[in-house]
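Propose amino acids for all 102 sites.
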């Protein structure tokens, strides 16, 4: 069947329409893919921030319009896809992740 199970963390605010649409799109992609995925989504992940490095998995897709999320992920060692309306270079940030401007 599947050779590897991928663990992805989604860090979005479910109260924002755009964020819900991003999560929905990720879900549609995962259903169509030929891989086995574990997705971590928590209603309010900020209550578990002290253990963030323990549950990031193989990669993160996150709302980079939320500066707190962006700062939390600044020094983690997993691939990151930042989604948002402001490019990191516009804020003077460098980063090793991919940034998608919505």
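Proposal:
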């Amino acid at each position: 069947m599947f050779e590897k199970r991928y663990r992805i963390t989604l860090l979005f605010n479910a109260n924002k329409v755009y964020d819900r649409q991003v999560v929905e799109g990720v879900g549609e992609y995962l259903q169509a893919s030929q891989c086995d995925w574990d997705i971590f989504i928590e209603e309010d992940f900020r209550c578990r921030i002290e253990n963030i490095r323990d549950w990031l998995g193989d990669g993160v897709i996150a709302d980079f319009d939320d500066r707190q999320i962006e700062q939390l992920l600044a020094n983690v060692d997993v691939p990151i896809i930042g989604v948002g309306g402001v490019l990191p270079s516009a804020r003077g940030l460098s980063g090793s992740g991919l940034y998608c401007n919505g």
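The first strand starts at residue 5 and ends at 11. Residues 80 and 96 are 8 Å apart (CA to CA).
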